[in-house]
C-alpha cells in the first residue's frame, strides 16, 4: 500500500522533478547519479580504484566532515535551550541534564564529537603529511586544510566556555593568557577576544557568536573549497602521478581571432588523462556506499560515548576561586606545559613556529617523491622530523593533562596529589 | 557492483541496526527517570485512599510530570516537589519519604521560599543523589537537620529566631570566645586570622568541627588555638559558621533583619526608660514589678495587650500608656520573653548604670580580646615558640608591669614581633595587633581600668 503510494508519487510530475535519477541500474545511470545530484557532485562520476582502499586515507577527512555534521545538528538543537548569559548559561546546562528530553545525550554527543573532531582533523593532517599528499598541485589545499585545523581548534575553544562552569571559565582564562604572551598584539588580541580584561559576560557573548555563527560559516565555506580543490587537483594523491602543468594558459598567448570552448582554457590535462580505464570504478555505488557505512560507524561511536559517558560539568564559574591547577583545554596543554617552563617559548615561539612551519611546508618540501605512499623511504628526513615533532607534542600534551597536579607539580595520574585546604 | 563492495553489504545491516539500537537505548535511558517512580507511588496511594469513583478518577488524572517552584528573587528553581509531592498535604504526616508532609512551615509558604533556601541541595536536579547534592561538583549538599538552624540566619538575625536555640548559642559563643579579635566579619574584626564572610560556603560541618577542636591538624601552620568547649558548643559554633554562606538575598527576604526583634527591644527598653520603675537582675526601679521572670508569668499576647492598654488587662495598674508603635511593642515583648544573658547589666549596655570596670569588660568582649588572652584575660592560650612559656601572656598582672599610659600605648601600638623561645624555630604565630584607629578613646580608658582591676588584691606587691 505504502509502496504503491510511493510509486505513484515517484511517477508524478512532482516526484520526477525531485528524484530525477532513480537508484541507478546501468553504468550510464551511475554516472548520471554522481553528476546530477547535489550531494554527490563533489565527487567525480568515476574514481580511481585506490580511492576505495581504507588504508589510503583511513577515512579521516570524511570522519571530520561527519563529526562536523553531527556537531551542527546537535549544536542547533542545543541552541534552543541555551542562553549565553552568565546568570543563565550554567542553569541551562543543569536543565539540559535534568528536565530537557534527551538534553543530556545531546550535550554529551556534542561534547564528545567535538573532541573527536579535533583528534580526527589532527590525524588527517598527519595522514596527508605521511603520504606526501600536500605536494604540487595540492599545496593550496594543504593551506586550506591548515586553516580548517585552526578553525576546528577555534570552534572547540569557543565552545569550551559556553557551559560557564569552573572548567570552562578557567580553561578559557588560561588559554587566553597564553595568547596574551604574543609580542605587541598579544594583550590587544586577548582584549578583543574577551571584550575586556577578564572572562565575563562580554567574553561569553563573543565566544557564543563566534561559536555558533562566525566560525561554523567560515569552516563550512573552507570545507567546500577544500572538497572542491580535492576534485580540481585530481582526487587522492596517487603514486606515480604525472607532474601537473605549471602554467595556466594566458589569454594573451592565444590567438585572438577565434572563440574558445572552456576546455581549451583549462590548464593542463584533466586528471583522467593517462589513467587506464580498468583502474577506474563508478563512484556510485562503490565509493558512496563505503562513505555511508563510515557515517554509520562514526554515528555509532559518538552515540556509544554519549550514552555511557557524561560530558563534564563542574561547579558554577567562580572568578575568585581558581581550581588548582587551572588547565587549558587538552589540545593546548602541550603549550601550557611549555609555558610553565618558559612563557616566551610556550606562548610565542613554539605556536608561531608550528603555524609557520605548517604553512610553509608544501613550498619548502617540493621534491616529487613518495606521493601517495605511506612513510616513503625517499622522504626519510621529512618523516623523521615530523615524527619527532609529533611525539614531542604528544608527550608534552600527555604530561600537561595527566601528569600535572596542584601547583603544576609532577604527579602520576593514578595517584593524584592532594590539594592542601586553605 | 564490485565484489569487494558486495562483501561490505552485510555491514550495512549490522551498522544500521547498531545505530538504530543505540538511538533507542539513548531515548530509553532518557525516558527512564527516577521521579516517575515516586509520582506513580503517589497516584497509587491516592487511588488506595479514594472512596468514590469520582475520587478514583481524580487520582488517575494526576499528571506524571516535573513540578517546580520558580523563585526568580532567590535565583532558584526548586524541583524537589517533583518527588516530594505531598509536602503541603497534612494527610501525609509521618509518611515515608519522599512522600512525607512538611510540618510547621506556615510562616514560610513554599511558593515564596521553595525548599533549597533552607535545606540546600541542588534544586534544579531531578535525581535523588544530584538533588540532595551528594555529588561531585556541587558545593551545597543538603544541610544535615542537626545544622538546619544555620539557614535561619540567611534572613533573620541569629538572636531573633525563637526556634533556633543552637544558632543563638553559637552567636553568644562567638562573642564570648573573642573570635572577632582575630577574624573579620562583615568588615569588623582583627586581621590575624582569615575573614569569616562566606566561610560556610567554603567549608563543611565536618571540617569546621575538626578545625575548632584542633586547627593546626586541619590547616597546617594555623595560629588558631584549639577551642576548648563542650561537644554541644562546638556544634553550635559550627552551625553559626555555616550560616555565613556569603549568599546575597533580595530585599524581600533580608528585610526580616531590619524588623525589630529582641535586639531592638533591648534598645527600646533602655531608651523608653523602663528601668525607672522596673528592674532586671536587681538593677532599676522598685515601683513596678521586677521583670526577670516575666516570661514565666505572661505570654506574648498578654504583654502586647498590656503595652497597648495597661489597665485593660491589669486593672489598677499605674503603668502609663506609652506611645509605642505595633512593631515597637512586639520588639519589647520579644526582648522580655527571650533575654537570656545572666550579665543583664552588661547586656543592656547602659553605660550610665555601669562602673568603668564593667564598661571595660564590655570593651574587652567587644574587641574579642579573650580570643588570645583567654576568658577574663586569664591566659592559657597556646602560642607555640613564644618566649612567654609558649603562651599568649595572661593579663592578670598587667597592673604590676605597666602604668595606665604605658598600657594604653601598648594596646594602641600592638607588638608585631613576638620574641621566640627558640630563635631557630618558626616565629610564634599569634601577635598583638595595633588597635589604634579602631578603639575609641573612652573605650580605651575603660579597658585599661578593667585590665588593671584583674590583679588579685592580696597579691599586690609593693616596692
Give descriptors for this structure.
heterodimer, A: mainly alpha, Cytochrome Bc1 Complex, Chain C, 59% helix, globular, B: 463 residues, mainly alpha, Cytochrome Bc1 Complex, Chain D, domain 2, 23 helices, 6 strands, flat
Architecture overview:
The complex is a heterodimer of chains A (about 425) and B (about 475). Chain A contains 16 helices and two strands. With about 425 residues, chain A is mainly α. Chain A has a domain at about 45-235 and about 275-325: Cytochrome Bc1 Complex, Chain C (Up-down Bundle), CATH 1.20.810.10. Chain A has a two-stranded antiparallel sheet. In chain A, helix 14 packs across helix 16. Chain A is globular and about 75 Å long. Chain B has about 475 residues and is mainly α. Chain B has 23 helices and six strands. Chain B has helices at about 5-30, 35-50, 55-60, 110-115, 115-120, 130, 165-175, 200, 205-215, 215-220, 230-240, 250-255, 260-270, 295, 300-310, 310-315, 325-340, 345-350, 355-365, 370-375, 400, 405-415, 440-450, and strands spanning about 70, 75-80, 185, 190, 280, 285. In chain B, the strands form three sheets. A two-stranded antiparallel ribbon of chain B has the order 1-2. Chain B has a two-stranded antiparallel ribbon with strand order 3-4. In chain B, strands 5-6 form a two-stranded antiparallel ribbon. In chain B, helix 15 crosses helix 17 and helix 19 (about 355-365) packs across helix 23. Chain B is flat. Chain B starts with a helix and ends in an 11-residue tail after the last helix. Classes of the chains: A mainly alpha (about 425), B mainly alpha (about 475). The interface between A and B is large, with 35 and 39 residues.
Amino acid at each position: 500500500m505504502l509502496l504503491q503510494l510511493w510509486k505513484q508519487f515517484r511517477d508524478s510530475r512532482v516526484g520526477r522533478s525531485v528524484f530525477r535519477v532513480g537508484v541507478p541500474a546501468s553504468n550510464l545511470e551511475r554516472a548520471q547519479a554522481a553528476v546530477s545530484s547535489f550531494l554527490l557532485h563533489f565527487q567525480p562520476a568515476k574514481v580511481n580504484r585506490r580511492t576505495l582502499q581504507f588504508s589510503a586515507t583511513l577515512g579521516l577527512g570524511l570522519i571530520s566532515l561527519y563529526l562536523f555534521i553531527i556537531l551542527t545538528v546537535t549544536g542547533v538543537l542545543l541552541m534552543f535551550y541555551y542562553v549565553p548569559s552568565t546568570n543563565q548559561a550554567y542553569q541551562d546546562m543543569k536543565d539540559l541534564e535534568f528536565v530537557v528530553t534527551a538534553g543530556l545525550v545531546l550535550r554529551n554527543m556534542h561534547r564528545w564529537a567535538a573532541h573527536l573532531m579535533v583528534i580526527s582533523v589532527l590525524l588527517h593532517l598527519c595522514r596527508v603529511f605521511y603520504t606526501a599528499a600536500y605536494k604540487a598541485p595540492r599545496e593550496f589545499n594543504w593551506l586550506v586544510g591548515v586553516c580548517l585545523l585552526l578553525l576546528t581548534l577555534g570552534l572547540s575553544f569557543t565552545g569550551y566556555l559556553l557551559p560557564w562552569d569552573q572548567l570552562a571559565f578557567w580553561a578559557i582564562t588560561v588559554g587566553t593568557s597564553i595568547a596574551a604572551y604574543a609580542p605587541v598584539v598579544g594583550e590587544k588580541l586577548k582584549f578583543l577576544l574577551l571584550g575586556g580584561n577578564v572572562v565575563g559576560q562580554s567574553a561569553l557573548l563573543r565566544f557564543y557568536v563566534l561559536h555558533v555563527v562566525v566560525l561554523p560559516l567560515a569552516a563550512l565555506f573552507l570545507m567546500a573549497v577544500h572538497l572542491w580543490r580535492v576534485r580540481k587537483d585530481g582526487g587522492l594523491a596517487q603514486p606515480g602521478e604525472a607532474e601537473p602543468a605549471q602554467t595556466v594558459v594566458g589569454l594573451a598567448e592565444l590567438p585572438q581571432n577565434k572563440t574558445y570552448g572552456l576546455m581549451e582554457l583549462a590548464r593542463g590535462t584533466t586528471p583522467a588523462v593517462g589513467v587506464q580505464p580498468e583502474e577506474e570504478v563508478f563512484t556510485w555505488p562503490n565509493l558512496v556506499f563505503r562513505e555511508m557505512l563510515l557515517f554509520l560507524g562514526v554515528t555509532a561511536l559518538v552515540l556509544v560515548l554519549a550514552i555511557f559517558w557524561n560530558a563534564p560539568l563542574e561547579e558554577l564559574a567562580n572568578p575568585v576561586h581558581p581550581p588548582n591547577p587551572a588547565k587549558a583545554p587538552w589540545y593546548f596543554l602541550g603549550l601550557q606545559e611549555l609555558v610553565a617552563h618558559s612563557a616566551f617559548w610556550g606562548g610565542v615561539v613554539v605556536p608561531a613556529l608550528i603555524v609557520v612551519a605548517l604553512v610553509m611546508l608544501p613550498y619548502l618540501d617540493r621534491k616529487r617523491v613518495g606521493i601517495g605512499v605511506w612513510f616513503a623511504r625517499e622522504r626519510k628526513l621529512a618523516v623523521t622530523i615530523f615524527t619527532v615533532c609529533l611525539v614531542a607534542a604528544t608527550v608534552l600534551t600527555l604530561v600537561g593533562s595527566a601528569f600535572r597536579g596542584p601547583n603544576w607539580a609532577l604527579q602520576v595520574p593514578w595517584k593524584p596529589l592532594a590539594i592542601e585546604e586553605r | 557492483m564490485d565484489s569487494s563492495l558486495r562483501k561490505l553489504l552485510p555491514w550495512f545491516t549490522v551498522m544500521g541496526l547498531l545505530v538504530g539500537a543505540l538511538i533507542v537505548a539513548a531515548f530509553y535511558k532518557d525516558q527512564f527517570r527516577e521521579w516517575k517512580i515516586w509520582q506513580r507511588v503517589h497516584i497509587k496511594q491516592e487511588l488506595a485512599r479514594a472512596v468514590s469513583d469520582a475520587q478514583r478518577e481524580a487520582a488517575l488524572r494526576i499528571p506524571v510530570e516535573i513540578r517546580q517552584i520558580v523563585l526568580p528573587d532567590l535565583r532558584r528553581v526548586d524541583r524537589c516537589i517533583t518527588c516530594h509531592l505531598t509536602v503541603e498535604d497534612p494527610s501525609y504526616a509521618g509518611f515515608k519519604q519522599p512522600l512525607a508532609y512538611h510540618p510547621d512551615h506556615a510562616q514560610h509558604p513554599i511558593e515564596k521560599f521553595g525548599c533549597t533556601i533552607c535545606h540546600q541541595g541542588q534544586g534544579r536536579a531531578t535525581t535523588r543523589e544530584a538533588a540532595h547534592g551528594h555529588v561531585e561538583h556541587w558545593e551545597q549538599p543538603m544541610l544535615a537537620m542537626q545544622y538546619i538552624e544555620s539557614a535561619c540566619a540567611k534572613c533573620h538575625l541569629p538572636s531573633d529566631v525563637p526556634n533556633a536555640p543552637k544558632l543563638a548559642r553559637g552567636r553568644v559563643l562567638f562573642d564570648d570566645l573573642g573570635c572577632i579579635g582575630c577574624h573579620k566579619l562583615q568588615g569588623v574584626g582583627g586581621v590575624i586570622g582569615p575573614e569569616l564572610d562566606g566561610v560556610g560556603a567554603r567549608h563543611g560541618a565536618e571540617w569546621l568541627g575538626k578545625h575548632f577542636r584542633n586547627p593546626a591538624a586541619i590547616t597546617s601552620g594555623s595560629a588558631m588555638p584549639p577551642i576548648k568547649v563542650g561537644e554541644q558548643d562546638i556544634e553550635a559554633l559550627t552551625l553559626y559558621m555555616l550560616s555565613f554562606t556569603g549568599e546575597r538575598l533580595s530585599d524581600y527576604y533580608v528585610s526580616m533583619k531590619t524588623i525589630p526583634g529582641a535586639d531592638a527591644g533591648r534598645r527600646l527598653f533602655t531608651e523608653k526608660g523602663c528601668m525607672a520603675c522596673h528592674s532586671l537582675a536587681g538593677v532599676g526601679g522598685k515601683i513596678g514589678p521586677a521583670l526577670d521572670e516575666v516570661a514565666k508569668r505572661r505570654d506574648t499576647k498578654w504583654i502586647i495587650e498590656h503595652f497597648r492598654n495597661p489597665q485593660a488587662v491589669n486593672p489598677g495598674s499605674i503603668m502609663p500608656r506609652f506611645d509605642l508603635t505595633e512593631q515597637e511593642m512586639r520588639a519589647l515583648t520579644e526582648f522580655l520573653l527571650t533575654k537570656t544573658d545572666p550579665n543583664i547589666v552588661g547586656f543592656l549596655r547602659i553605660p550610665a548604670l555601669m562602673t568603668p570596670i564593667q564598661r571595660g569588660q564590655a570593651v574587652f568582649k567587644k574587641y574579642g580580646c579573650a580570643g588570645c588572652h583567654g576568658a577574663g584575660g586569664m591566659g592559657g592560650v597556646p602560642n607555640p615558640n613564644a618566649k612567654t612559656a609558649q603562651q599568649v601572656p595572661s593579663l592578670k598582672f598587667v597592673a604590676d608591669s605597666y602604668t595606665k599610659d604605658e598600657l594604653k600605648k601598648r594596646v594602641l601600638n600592638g607588638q608585631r614581633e613576638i620574641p621566640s623561645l627558640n630563635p631557630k624555630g618558626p616565629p610564634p604565630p599569634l601577635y598583638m595587633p595595633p588597635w589604634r584607629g579602631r578603639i575609641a578613646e573612652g573605650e580605651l580608658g575603660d579597658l585599661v581600668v578593667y585590665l588593671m582591676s584583674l590583679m588579685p588584691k592580696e597579691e599586690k606587691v609593693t616596692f
